Each structure stands twice: as structure tokens, then as C-alpha cells.
Amino acid sequence: MRNLRMIIAYDGSEFHGWQSQPGMRTVQSILEQAVRRVVRHQVAIIGAGRTDSGVHAAGQVANFFTIRDIPARNLLRAIGSRLPKDMSLEDVRDVPLTFHATHSAMCKLYRYRVFASPRRPVTLHAQRYTYHFWHRLDIDRLRAAAAVLVGRHDFTSFASKGNDRTHNVRCILRCDVFRVGDEIRFDIEGDGFLYNQVRNIVGTLLEIGRGLWPVERMSEILAALDRTAAGPTAPARGLSLQWVRYDLRALRRSAEAQGLSGAAAADLASSFALPAGDQPVLPPGTDLEEEPSG
Prior knowledge:
Elements: E1 2-10, H1 27-39, E2 46-47, E3 56-66, H2 72-80, E4 87-95, E5 105-116, H3 124-129, E6 131-133, H4 139-148, E7 151-154, E8 169-180, E9 183-190, H5 197-209, H6 217-224, E10 239-246, H7 248-257, H8 262-270
Parallel strand pairs: 3-10, 5-6
Antiparallel strand pairs: 1-3, 1-4, 2-3, 5-9, 5-10, 7-8, 8-9
Helix pairs in contact: 1-2, 4-5, 7-8
């Protein structure tokens, strides 16, 4: 038995989210169809993040089990060639049998993009991947309100109806706000997220950023534990799952325990590396970096 990890990017515009639903075009169902055609047996794809309808991904992580001995590099080509034009298989790797795309994840980063201009976005890219917000936004107000969210809190006020979690305490490691041309981007990294949490946070920040509410309102919203106290849900099209981070030391130890050489285990761990300049903020007392060799 083998465990294969995949990294997938997709334009979520025409998908009804990640999770399989009868009669719906979902990322999970399309991916499972492609994998089944290659390995010729039933598979269950496990995804790191259950993105909602219309939400995109640049670095979704998934895994599946197979009895086939097809090399990973061949699987990359064979599965990738069977995917539609709005999905891309970025990488396939053998991973330890204990690896689970969801449960092994340490943190995730979602990016929300707002086209903040009185001018209408004319490029197809901006229309498809950003939320056009007409009101003038004060970036200092946005940053001050975003800073209130960092840390471990009960995010009940930001969980939409339909949230199936038994408790709503989550840790936000960072909530950065920055401008790139006409865009204002929100990078929100956390150890887990509630249903629509990121979009509800952004919708609330926009109300504060345009001056409708004072910055101090954010603390009051958190304390209220009431969804009606927060702002509207920002549209799905501006949101993308950028990456998922795993414990590289644990991966390396599991790989070596399964019989991989030190060099092969180190190579596996390096395949999980994030893009340069996009490293996670680590929870206190956590070290996700590899152990020094030798």
C-alpha cells in the first residue's frame, strides 16, 4: 500500500466547493474520477481544506492510497492530463502511510483580494479573482482592526450558519493587510478555520476600513459570540487557499521509520517547503523546520 500526496491548484469559479456532492461538480469528485482512471480502483481523496463554492486554491494539499506501483512522476503526468482546464496538478509524492492531508496539517494561509478602487476592474483576472469594493478604505484602520484577531479566540461571531464544529476556538497566527497596486490583500494564517470564517472576517474589516464602524468594534464583535454582530460575508471569488504547512521533522521521522534513507527522507521534507518569503508564523514553542543533518 502506498500513500500519495498531491498539491493542486484550481479556479473555483465553476466548482460547487471541494467536497463531493451528488450531481454537483466539485473539486474532490473531479479529482477522484481522474485518479480512478489511472490507478483503476476506487479511491477516496482526502483534502486539507474544504473550500466553499467559488473559492480558489493555489496550494491545496490532498492524499490518497493505492496498491499500484506507478512511479509518482508518471502519476503526475497521467492524472494531470485527465483534469479539466480549471484544475492543475502541481506535484505528486510518496509520503509515509501515517500522513493525512487534514489531520497532519499545522496551519493554513488564506488570501483575500479586494480591488479597492472607484474604477471598475476591466481585466478578466481582476473580475474573476478579486472583490470590487467601491468605498475608499483606510489601510491603517484595517491593520489596527486585523491585529485584534491575532491569537486564540472564540470565533463564534465569524462562523456562518451551517458551521458543524463542536467548538469555535481557533488560533489566528497572523492577519496581515497590504496594498498591491489597486488591490488590498488580506493574508490570514491559522491552525484551522470555521465555516466562512475568513470571508466573514474580511467583510467585517471592510466595514471598519470604510469608516462605518470604529476600530474598537472588532473587540466587541469577538466578545459578543454572535454572528449578527459582525459584518457581511465577503464574496467567494476573492478568496484563495494559498498553502498548507506540515511538521517537516515529523514527516522526516515517519519516512525514515518506513525505511527511507536519510537523504530520501530529507528530499521528501523539502518537497513540502513553502515559496520563498512566504514562511508561516509559528505558534509559541513550535518548530516546523527540518532538523540539521549530521
